[in-house]
Specification:
By secondary structure, this protein is α/β, with parallel strands linked by helices. The protein has eleven helices and 18 strands. Strands 1, 2, 3, 4, 5, 16, 17 and 18 form an eight-stranded mixed sheet that branches. Strand 12, helix 5 and strand 13 form a beta-alpha-beta unit. Helix 2 packs across helix 11, helix 5 packs parallel to helix 6 and helix 9 packs across helix 10. The N terminus is likely disordered.
């Protein structure tokens, strides 16, 4: 309980009645009538802390039809009310922001990245992502014991939220990144317990022999990982390559595919297994299409020589074939009703906008891709207060200059980004990106 302190203001207030009585007595004792006192001025009503954003097309992120002339209010970092203009109550004294002609979407949630592991570099990674409209990202299995996981609990200005799968689990892979290298079910269970002690947000496993270079996790071992993780209340995301491993993982209870099947087109058995596990999530992570790509929209966000090097790509038939397999598999699974979320792998902050284009090229609609990159991805990561523009959720949104439902590449035409109701300093981040 907070103690009541009697301040000087309290003392002044307490003295007023006595002084007033003395004045009244003097007035009555005088020969003339008391002078009429002016009415006290009423204090001005305090300005509202609510901000109303008016006139934009609102793409809520849940797959519903857009609100063509929408208004939403924000207070204390959260959405208060969302709806058609005229139907939303804007409090007296609220600030107003005119977004006429703009389109608003929820911030992107990237469900598969690998970020830096030192504090300053990790914060820089998160701020670069915020510049490109990303509101949260999970580092998938590459965060060693020195990684500052406490950043997950910090609200860092101009930075996306950080989640982590800690260190992932796989068979020994000499020459590659050292994570939890396990060869028995007992070692696998201990690795899960070690990561659970770090309070990680997910457990990551790799089930891949890397083109025959290594022994991959056996069903016995990855089954032990899944069982132990679930006993600790943690979901498991699996990096896979082959169709057969995908089937085995579905039978073993995997929660998330961190990649789709990559060695061949999926078959009916795989589709049947997915139908039996409707809660399983696919994060496609499509590979490059193997064709020259115009990245001119990135001008001004990196040094010219770096952009020119990225632009200097040639057609790659092998990459085109690999992309085709995964694109067909994504289209079939999306059509079959599998939950599709979103991820980009690596540490490229602008990659989400390429991935969304690739997903549309694979056959998904722009509306479904936006749902995958916002609501579905947030739900897969347990971010209950993100993913949609909805009353009560964190006010994380992107203001676009054009409609991504017409052309998904319009997600690149960012006018502004807001995280927790505060506009991101994109100009400040841009200046750092250029260095």
């Amino acid at each position: 309980m907070q103690r009541h302190r009697k301040t000087s203001e309290n003392r002044v207030a307490a003295a007023v009645p006595y002084a007033f009585l003395i004045g009244v007595a003097v007035g009555l004792a005088g020969c003339g009538p008391a002078a009429e006192q002016p009415a006290p001025e009423q204090p001005a009503a305090p300005a509202s802390s609510v901000v109303a954003y008016e006139g934009a097309r609102l793409i809520v992120g849940d797959g519903s039809a857009p609100i063509e002339n929408g208004t939403f209010t924000v207070d204390d970092g959260s959405f208060v009310e969302v709806g058609a203009s005229g139907a939303v109550a804007v409090p007296e004294g609220a600030s107003r922001v005119d977004l006429s002609g703009m389109t608003v979407i929820p911030t992107i949630v990237d469900g598969h990245v690998h970020m830096s592991t030192t504090r300053d570099e990790l914060i820089a990674d998160l701020q670069r992502r915020a510049y490109f409209g990303v509101g949260a990202a999970i580092s998938m299995g590459s965060d060693d014991l020195e990684t500052p996981l406490e950043i997950r609990d910090e609200a860092i200005p101009d930075a996306a939220r950080f989640l982590s799968a800690g260190l992932g689990i796989t068979s020994p892979e000499p020459g590659r990144r050292v994570v939890h290298w396990v060869t028995t079910a007992d070692e696998a269970r201990q690795a899960v317990r070690d990561e659970a002690a770090r309070d990680v947000d997910m457990i990551k496993i790799w089930v891949d022999d890397r083109d025959g270079q290594y022994d991959k996790l056996s069903p016995e071992i990855y089954g032990a990982v899944i069982e132990e993780a679930h006993a600790n209340g943690i979901q498991v995301a699996a990096h896979i390559f082959s169709l057969e491993d995908g089937k085995g993982l579905l039978r073993a209870g995997v929660d998330v595919f961190a990649h789709g099947v990559r060695d061949r087109d999926i078959d009916q058995e795989f589709l049947d297994l997915v139908a039996e596990r409707p809660e399983v999530v696919l994060v496609p992570n499509l590979p490059g299409r193997g064709v020259p790509t115009d990245l001119g929209w990135l001008a001004g966000t990196m040094p010219d020589e770096q952009l020119q090097a990225l632009q200097a790509t040639e057609a790659d038939p092998a990459a085109q074939e690999a992309h085709g397999i995964q694109a067909r598999n994504l289209a079939r699974l999306s059509e079959a009703g599998m939950i599709v979320a979103f991820g980009t792998d690596g540490n490229t902050p602008w990659a989400p906008h390429v991935e969304m284009e690739d997903m549309v090229e694979a056959g998904m609609s722009p509306a479904d891709v936006i749902v995958a990159a916002t609501r579905n991805s947030a739900a897969a990561l347990g971010l209950a207060d993100m993913g949609t523009i909805e009353a009560g959720k964190s006010a994380d949104f992107v203001v676009l200059e054009a409609n991504p439902l017409d052309d998904i590449t319009n997600t690149r035409r960012i006018a502004s980004v807001y995280l927790r109701g505060v506009e991101v300093d994109r100009e400040g981040i841009r200046s750092r990106l250029m260095n």
